Amino acid sequence: MASLLLLAILPVAFFAVVALQRIGDVATADGDARASGAATAVRAILTRDSDDLQSLVTSYVTWDRLRTDTAALDTVDIAGTVIDFQVARGTVDAALLEVGDTTLAGGDATIAAELETYLANDAGGPTSAALGGDPGPVFAAFRGGIYELAIGTIDLTGLNGPGVLAASSRPALLAFAVRLDSAFVVRARQLTGFDVAVYDLSGNLMVASNAQLATRAGRPNVTGLPADGDHVGRPEPGIVAAGFSVAGIDGTTVGAVLAMTDLRLLGAIGTDLVPFLAVTLALTLILALLLSVVLSRQLRIRLGAVRAGIAAVARGDLTTRLPEGDRDEIERLAGSHNRLAAMLERRDRMIWGSSEAIEQLHPERGADRLAADGVEAARRIFGLEAAWLRTVDGAVVAASPPVAIPTPEPNILASLLPGSANLRLEGRAADPASWSASDRMLFDLFVRDLGVVIRDAGLYAGAARRADRLGRINRLQQDFLQAIGHNLRSPLTRILMASDDLRTYPETASSTRARAESIHADAARLSRIVGQLLTLSRLDAGAYEPAAELLELAPLARRSWDALASDRPFSIVDHSSGAFAVGDRAAVEQVLWILLDNAVTYAPNGPVRVTIETREAARDGSKATGTELVLRVADQGPGVPAAERTRIFGRFQRGSTAEGREVTGLGLDVARGLLSAMGGRLWLETTDRPGATFAFALPAEPISGPA
């Protein structure tokens, strides 16, 4: 009997030893695989953080308010709404706005200075990346750590101001820098289960979730780590580590990130404890064989219930509960599963409730209404007995349920803005001890987002007031121009008729005729100004509807020149190939008269030349969409200084060469408005020859010959 038992035990013991060794090998391979997976997960976290940071930059560089302030170089508004806001919120460690030679920085001054040097020495790298596509996560080694960067260019097309000229040689840039700090490695540790460490280019440890483990692992060979994959290694027996290098925008390695864990326990199981475990396992197997027949069916049923519960959680069903108790590990495991499912269900309700509540808090509803709604939402979402919003002085801003002075003291509280104690959201929880660190973190996030929404409400109200004030000013300006035009037109007509009679009446004395000529010329000039004011009024009010006629530009240009009665040399070169422009005849004649009159006024000597040509129309570098006629008016005057080439198209704007000349600064604004209404455009061409060349384009209809 003993021999038979021995013969039964020896094979079991032998296979137990082989199984333990196999377990050790599998554990080793599993450790390597899990380390590689952890490194991949950490890289995904970095990529997601980079995408979020780049999305934040992209949302700001396309913000109309920022583009307008940047074009105007309004440093107070820019610093107040972008840089200080993101730094105060804690989203970024340093922020930088560059417009030409002007630099605005926020956050850590040292990091902001290094970020500025990085952008200056990059030889177009960040700018090209921001303009030309997605370079992936971008890092830089600044003083004291590795920083993740996001850069965006601000498009100032169509805007006027000193910021536009300042950014003409180098695009206006907005850059954010976020340090890979302890918060990052701790978050990565929570998500992957592996300790995470960040190293600089020399292998020096910058930050780690477990400094002791990172010290034992030693310095990694940063330059030998891959950038796209990961390298699994064992720097010390019992430690497995997988890492990858992080690179700047030019591909140069600036540091590395390692995911590591201690596997010494598995090593001990595979070596020192193998003999003892082999014998124990053999005896256990024998007993298990005897008991397995009896317990297997019951065990399968109970394990099947646990498996079904875990599968339900994996599907997102957090309402399934398992029978629990304290008789054995399976019942205790079921209890742990139930508590975990309940906690996840409660946390999901908090997350979704917070998200939905914040989405429904719109800034246009006003700060007071948002404060009341936010307090009510906090009480409902987090299951508080009461919640209130008050200042550090004790003044209650909003409360739910409404009370003048909340009592007793709160056991849950958070400041509305990071680093600010001016306004706090406080509350009373029935059982504050049941609040985990994650619950408090979710509460802090909700309160922080509520603070952002209330701040946005203040910014929205200020913007609304400014927009309303500008609208009133614009309406008053239009009413003023229209009233001036209508009230002056009738007396001017009478003056023109009377002066015309005086200067053409045969018996009028020569001295009186000269005065009448002067009166007639000044009245005609004033009449043209009034006409321009009325045209601007109609354009601003959207009441101008141009006709669509087929026009020959060369005869119209000749007639407009004859109306000026100038003795200057004048020529027309027509390469239109018989094509007709599509536009309003009166409006086109007014534009031609304005451009020719400017050529005569600003260039008193030399010939005036008009050229007309047909070309394919292409806008913004896109594919050609049709045919257009381009007419150019060139003179040989002093030209337009480079600093004024954008400003002269503004209303009541006169160039520096207009000194001593009777000009109003309305002509180019009127011409541009009329051409825009007809689907055309007006611009100043840059040429090497002296003088100025103004050009405009109108849609054209080519004339086909007989079939």
Task: Describe this protein's structure.
The chain has 707 residues and is an alpha+beta fold. Helix content is 51%, strand content 19%. The chain is built from 17 helices and 21 strands. The chain has helices spanning 2-61, 64-72, 75-89, 109-120, 125-132, 162-166, 182-192, 211-217, 264-270, 274-315, 329-360, 367-381, 437-504, 510-541, 553-564, 585-602, 667-677; strands at residues 94-99, 102-107, 138-142, 145-154, 172-179, 195-200, 205-208, 231-236, 239-247, 253-262, 386-391, 396-400, 412-415, 423-428, 549-551, 570-575, 580-583, 608-617, 626-634, 681-685, 693-701. The strands form four sheets. Strands 15, 16, 17, 18, 19, 20 and 21 form a seven-stranded mixed β-sheet that branches. Strand 13 and strand 14 (423-428) form a beta hairpin. It is elongated and about 140 Å long. It starts with a helix and ends in a 6-residue tail after the last strand. Residues 1-8 and 128-132 have low confidence and may be disordered.
